UniProtKB/TrEMBL annotation:
Keywords: Ligase. The keyword Ubl conjugation does not apply. Belongs to the ATP-dependent AMP-binding enzyme family. Residues 8-88, 103-290 form the AMP-dependent synthetase/ligase domain. One of its GO terms (molecular function) is medium-chain fatty acid-CoA ligase activity. It comes from Actinopolymorpha singaporensis. Coiled coil: none annotated. The keyword Ligase applies. It holds the Pfam family AMP-binding. One of its GO terms (biological process) is fatty acid metabolic process. Residues 336-410 form the AMP-binding enzyme C-terminal domain. This is Acyl-CoA synthetase (AMP-forming)/AMP-acid ligase II. InterPro entries: AMP-bd_C, AMP-bd_C_sf, AMP-binding_CS, AMP-dep_synth/lig_dom, ANL_N_sf.
């Protein structure tokens, strides 16, 4: 992967050039490269070699990025996990990532995670080309380059934010990484940052904090969900150029909005072919993850819905009811349901996304208790805390005497969602 190559080249030419900045101080490219080399030496001494998996879960962004560079120096696969995952989440996630690396060997450069259907984050393997091949095109489309200080306001275990940080280091920019999303901290960072990676709900909050002045911020790269035209207009009035795109951890970039297009239209990302079949978006190109199921023509999908227009543009309508987008993270309902079904007293459970002003959606769990032994809210929350990442845990909890079923015995989430909205489900708030 060019990450380690480019970091070392920059370190040799401009060792004092800032690689990471923020409240904890500045780390130059020389220091970042030195940290990575020391870590690579330690890993090599422990037996790590090309084709092995290296779990990178450091809470400090500089240490985590040094770990990723170190793994790349050894041609090992950097497995980027969340430092706050409980053991019950982290250990099986790491095991599944190692199994994936064992299967594909030295072809794997990077492993990120997305929600899985069993409660364990599902690993997504990247080749050395599947992300970094897009870096020059991304630079050309966004204008983000060596002159920028790039704000990455979310945890680097999220693929959207990790991509932003690694792209910045490759082009020689400085990364201002926040340990987690904070509108106040992000607004303060905009006093010195010129570009930012975020999702629409974050942009809304950031604009509210910034007011009419955007500080030095000039470029907003926005992914993960549909961007409201009013938010786009507010950003433009503050002097920001918004570049929004559609993609997924498994597919990487699929489509991007370019100047002159209507707010709901995107063009396929260069080198990517897009097809819409029965309302479902399929993509083919050089950025697809390793091991992803593809059709005979090389197309893959994550189940997102959309429309392909006669002029070749794409409108994205979102994923089916099995996925919930909250704060830029995609949560699969099955993952949450799987964990909650293990709680004594739970007969059935359905998880849906309910609207939230700041996060877009939050996870709501609707529990059908077993007769005579209903679980308490404390028991449900405790199970979620042990078995799920923080982003996947329900924020709203309900109980209902009986969840609806289809003739095949499945719980129709769309019906549950509608019943919560209009009150016909008869759900009671758990307290």
């Amino acid at each position: 992967m060019p990450i380690s190559r480019d970091v070392r080249r920059r370190a040799a030419a401009e060792p004092d050039r800032p690689a990471l900045v923020g409240r904890s101080g500045t780390v130059g490219y020389g220091e970042l490269a030195a940290r990575a080399e020391r870590r690579a030496e330690t890993l090599a001494a422990s037996g790590v070699a090309a084709g092995h998996a290296v779990v990178c879960a450091d809470p400090d962004p500089a240490d985590l990025l040094a770990a990723v560079v170190a793994a790349d120096l050894l041609e090992a696969a950097a497995v980027v996990a969340d430092a706050d995952w409980p053991d019950a989440v982290r250990e099986p996630a790491a095991a599944s990532a190692r199994a994936l690396v064992d299967r594909h060997g030295t072809a794997v450069s990077l492993v990120v995670f997305t929600s899985g259907s069993t409660g364990t984050p599902r690993p997504v393997a990247r080749t050395r080309r599947s992300w970094t091949f897009s870096f020059p095109t991304f630079s050309a489309l966004t204008g983000v380059g060596a002159q920028d200080t790039v704000l990455v306001p979310g945890r680097l275990s999220g693929s959207l934010f990790l991509y932003g940080a690694l792209h910045a280091l490759t082009v020689g920019a400085a990364v201002h990484a926040l340990p987690s999303w904070s509108p106040a901290d992000a607004a303060r960072a905009c006093e010195s940052c010129t570009a930012v990676h975020l999702v629409p709900s974050m942009l809304t909050e950031l604009l509210d904090r910034l007011g009419p002045s955007a500080g030095r911020l000039r470029t907003v790269v926005c992914g993960g969900a549909h961007l409201d035209p009013g938010v786009r207009a507010k950003a433009a009035a503050a002097g920001m150029e918004v570049v929004d795109y559609y993609g997924a951890a498994e597919l990487s970039f699929v489509a991007i909005r370019r100047p002159g297009l209507p707010p709901d239209r995107l063009r396929p990302f260069p080198e990517v072919d897009v097809d819409v079949r029965d309302g479902v978006i399929w993509a083919r190109g050089p950025y697809l993850a390793l091991g992803l199921d593809r059709d005979p023509d090389g197309f893959a999908t994550v189940g997102d819905h959309g429309v392909r227009h006669d002029d070749g543009t794409l409108s994205v309508h979102g994923r089916g009811d099995a996925a919930i987008t909250t704060g830029g993270a995609t949560v699969l309902a099955e993952a949450v349901e799987h964990v909650l079904r293990q709680v004594p007293g739970v007969a059935e459970v359905a998880c849906v996304g309910t609207p939230h002003e700041r996060l877009g959606q939050v996870v709501a769990a609707v529990v059908e208790p077993r007769p005579g032994c209903a679980p308490t809210l404390a028991e449900l929350r405790a199970a979620a805390a042990v078995g799920l990442a923080a982003t996947d845990r329900p924020r709203l909890w309900y109980a209902v005497d009986r969840l609806p079923r289809t003739p095949g015995g499945k719980v129709p989430r769309a019906e549950v969602h509608a019943g919560l909205r209009d009150g016909s489900l008869g759900a009671r708030v758990l307290t």
